[in-house]
Specification:
Elements (H helix, E strand, L loop, with lengths): L12 H6 L4 H18 L4 E3 L3 E4 L2 E4 L5 E4 L2 E5 L4 E4 L12 H4 L3 E2 L3 E4 L7 H16 L1
Antiparallel strand pairs: 1-2, 2-5, 3-4, 5-6, 6-8, 7-8
Helix pairs in contact: 2-4
Length: 136
Amino acid sequence: MAENLTQPTDADVDAFLDSVPDERRRAEGHALRRLMERVTGQEPVMWGPTMVGFGKEHYRYESGREGDQFVVGFSPRKAALTLYGLNSPGGEPDPLMAQLGPHTTGKSCVYVKRLDAVNADVLERLIRRRLEQAAT
C-alpha cells in the first residue's frame, strides 16, 4: 500500500510562516498558529512543505487504506487560507459553518479569503469540536 505523501517533518514552523511572500497572509498564518496552539494545547508541526498541523490521529478507510494525519491545521496559500480538519468527518456540514463568516469548502478543507472576516469565536468552537471528535 502506498505511503501518504504528506508526513510530519522537522521543518521550522516559524521559518515557514516568515517565508510567506504576502504580508497579510504571513500575519494571518502567525495568527492562526497562535490560535490553534492555544486551543489545542499542542505545538505546531510542519506536515509536508506547506501545512502546519496540530495533533495526530490514525485513520483507516473501508478500502483498507490507513495512515496518520494531523487533527487540525492550515496552510497560508496565495488564494486563500486553507483550514484542515474543520469539516465533519461524516461529510455532513457542521451547523456552525453557517456562523463562521465568508468561506468556501472542499471535501476536507475550508477556504477563507480574510481571517479578519470570519467569526473568531466560531472558528475556535469548530477547532474544539474537532479535537473532541478526535479524542473519541
